[in-house]
Design brief:
two-stranded parallel sheet; Outer membrane efflux proteins (OEP); 2 domains; alpha+beta; 6 strands
């Protein structure tokens, strides 16, 4: 009798499960067919961009599409090329940005996982309890067993259905943030390459300034020798000697100051290259030659900046991410639907695994709805919308800033070339004037004041000329940086060093996320 009752009970449980399964399938089909995605559909914000550059009529500039993803090669300087390649491999800030991309990939994986049953647990345990003899039902009865032993093993799951698209929007948020992290990496790479080129130019400029200072020291030592000879011959007073000596010492004093700047620039370059300062010497040569300036500069058109500049792309992805956040917030206005259930086995001192020990429950339909939220949900939506509009305005401002940076670089480059030419002629004239004044002074045709003035002017003119040459290159570097070139060199290459990948694999199970850590 008991056996037939157990079989009947098992059959009824099977039928219930089958009926429940059909009901769940129908419910899922209905829910999926009725699902919607809340929130605005996002597109690239409008931005005001002029059709051409202010200096586009200048023959030095060409309107041909830039194409110079490795613009530093246009300077025809092998040392500079090697330094930038090294920085792209070893710069520590760039490696941090690469690790943020890996972090964003993992966060995207979390968001994708939220689409599926959010809770899936395997549980089990064993308990032993003993009841008091002096409490019901044991009080007054001596034959009842006061010991209870229960063992259970089960699996439970809960699934909040993405009825309003909250989880799909969360994936959009994570996906946009991943794209933004790549754009941020590219932006840092653009800045690093420009900083390496600029710092290298500073180093070469200071070297040339030191060379000119040393040449002026030689000229002034020759002048001091002439004044001493004139003084010993009784032609002039000791005033000329002391003035010549004072000028010479002042010029010599410039050199230690320049050497301080040179060492500091080298220290900055070593940081950009991600290596100790003492290791930098093997990558630099002793030449003081400045990079060669190309005859023309390909600048393209302002509209190209929208896709070429990583910081603009970053701002655009921030707009997309924040737009999806509005949909996530709006989903909280509506009820949340979920499925839940569990199956398992539970028994006392009998066999745990068996039809008689089977237990479980299933809820094919549950919902919860925050109906009294005192405006919290709506105000959260408003806050997300305000942040979205901030992101749009920031994008538009970023475009204007990009155009401004290019315009600043172009006008600086073009006008500094004119200034360099004038200063070159001026320092040549000043050098000739210094030579003539020394000859006239030696022959008694001029007093020492003229010599002193010409030598002072020569020192200033030559120093200004070298700085102007450096300014031309630095303005051109700033222009290329503003145009957004340089990030393409890492396409298909590792975001972080191979040794770092091995260390992370040994420390943590990264699955296949570290199988491909190259730049997309």
């Amino acid at each position: 009798m008991n056996k037939s009752k157990s079989v009947s009970s098992s059959r009824s449980w099977v039928e219930v499960r089958r009926a429940s399964g059909v009901g769940v399938a129908l419910l899922c089909l209905w829910l999926l067919s009725s699902c919607t995605t809340l929130g605005p559909e996002i597109k690239r914000p409008d931005a005001q961009v002029s059709p051409g550059w202010s200096e586009s009529e200048n023959q030095v500039l060409t309107g041909v599409s830039d194409g110079s993803s490795q613009w530093w090669h246009l300077f025809n300087d092998p040392v500079l090329n090697r330094l930038i390649d090294l920085a792209a491999q070893q710069n520590l800030t760039l490696q941090t940005a690469g690790l943020k991309i890996l972090e964003a990939r993992a966060v995207l994986g979390i968001a994708v996982g939220q689409q599926y049953p959010q809770s899936q647990q395997l549980s089990g345990g064993s308990s032993l309890s003993r009841s008091s003899k002096n409490t019901p039902p044991h009080s007054g009865f001596s034959g009842l067993d006061r010991n209870t032993s229960i063992t259970d093993l089960g699996f439970s799951a809960a699934w909040e259905l993405d009825f309003w698209g909250k989880f799909r929007r969360s994936i959009e948020v994570a996906d946009a943030q991943l794209a933004a992290s790549v754009a941020d990496y590219d932006d840092i790479l653009v800045m690093v390459t420009a900083e390496v080129a600029s710092t290298y130019t500073v180093i070469q400029t200071i070297k040339q300034r030191i060379d000119f200072a040393n040449s002026n020291v030689a000229i002034q030592e020759r002048g001091l020798g002439i004044t001493r000879a004139q003084f010993e011959g009784g032609a002039v007073t000791d005033l000329d000697v002391q003035q010549a000596r004072s000028l010479l010492l002042n010029t010599k004093a410039l050199i230690p100051e320049l050497e301080i700047g040179l060492r500091q620039a080298k220290n900055s370059l070593s940081i950009l290259l991600g290596l100790p300062a003492e290791d930098l010497a093997q990558y630099l040569d002793e030449e003081s030659t400045l990079p060669h300036v190309p005859a023309t500069v390909a600048v393209g058109i302002p509209a190209n900046l929208l896709r070429r500049r990583p910081d603009i792309r970053y701002a655009e992805f921030q707009v997309a991410s924040q737009g999806a956040m509005i949909g996530v917030a709006q989903a909280d206005l509506y009820p949340q639907f979920a499925l839940a259930g569990s199956i398992g086995f539970a028994a006392d001192d009998k066999t745990l695994i068996g039809s008689d020990s089977f237990t479980g429950f299933f809820t094919p339909f549950t919902f919860k709805w925050d109906i009294f939220n005192y405006g919290r949900i709506k105000n959260n939506i408003r806050a997300q919308d305000a942040r979205f509009q901030q992101a749009v305005v920031n994008y538009q401002n970023q475009v204007l800033e990009a155009v401004k940076e290019v315009e600043d670089g172009l006008i600086g480059f073009l006008k500094s070339q004119t200034r360099e030419k004038l200063l070159e002629d001026a320092q040549q004239a000043s050098l000739r004037a210094t030579e003539l004044s020394l000859l006239h002074y030696r022959d008694g045709l001029a007093d020492y004041t003229r010599v002193l003035n010409s030598q002072q002017v020569l020192v200033a003119q030559q120093d200004s000329f070298v700085k102007a040459k450096g300014d031309v290159i630095n303005y051109l570097i700033a222009t290329y940086k503003a145009l957004g070139g340089g990030w393409q060199i890492k396409a298909g290459k590792n975001l972080i060093p191979e040794e770092m990948v091995k260390t992370m694999k040994n420390r943590t199970d990264w699955g296949d996320l570290l199988e491909s850590v190259s730049h997309p």
